[in-house]
């Protein structure tokens, strides 16, 4: 039975060949059973080709033919529902292939037993091999690609074989669905309308950020062309530290914008739990949901989660916190995406995190030359500079962060609009800054 897919897709031909291969395996398995042939070998899988997410996933994770068959079997109801319907409408065939009817849609779904029947038949050793495809350390489980939806009273392999909705989108359309804030993904999309030229940093910080961008951009070049792959860790981990308002969040946003990656600010209040083991589960779900998506996870005020371990853990709370830090160290090191930890005080972080992060970038209060650039670039034309106002004297007398300068100018602008007085002097800036500092 030749299958076709009607969609624009860089893996179009490859997915069509995969479906045709699955159809051939289903047909051969049915014939084998009818002829009582237990040793009929599985048809060889098509050659991997295409530049889409599906082809990349198969090749990157070195999936065997049997593993590929399980993957395309789970994907088939979303590509060609009628492929399994052919075998589901007949009671004998449905029982043979262990298909189940969807409770929500009029389609037949494969089970773990369907995969076993196609791959192993009556071969016990092959059957046990298929069981291992659903172990926690297998790529299907580790990356949250496939699950077995077990029903009450059924065995684990009788359960529906389901593919994660994110991977359905990725394999079919070469793009991941943007996740909404939820218990499974407690993070908000972080975006900005600003550009790199709007960000004023000291040269050392700028150089460190460029090094970070280079390391991410040229990872594949170093891994493949320079032969350093086995020595390099996947993903990237960085610490941004320094006073509030110095550009840490904006830098994270601009990194994502320039790289074409979504940046998500993690809601630590939804991650941290007072119940033992729940924080670890929340982190595991977040990282699993983010695997292979190219996201940048931004942990603002990250010391709330990644704080130092208790040196002398004498009570259960300290012991649990130390266990949590140990888990976080391993989870972050194994994560293949980009993690940015932001903190006002680097000393609050556990020292072990610093050793596992490739970059540690300091964001300081602007020096006079950067402060002068900020005041000039942010000052609106509608505000008139009085004779006493001198930006050069201002930045020497008192350094302000970029966020503070924006607040001062915003307050002055609002007062000017209300009073219809648009000339500003040095005394006005001192008055407004003093008021803001008291808050």
Automatic annotation (TrEMBL):
UniProt cross-references to Pfam families, sorted A to Z: AAA
Lineage: Bacteria, Pseudomonadati, Bacteroidota, Cytophagia, Cytophagales
Annotated CDD domains: RecA-like_protease
The species this protein was found in: Persicobacter psychrovividus
Domain AAA+ ATPase: 234-367
The UniProt record lists the keyword Translocase: no
Membership in a protein family: Belongs to the AAA ATPase family.
SMART domains: AAA
Gene3D superfamilies: P-loop containing nucleotide triphosphate hydrolases
Name of the protein in its database record: AAA+ ATPase domain-containing protein
Domain of life: Bacteria
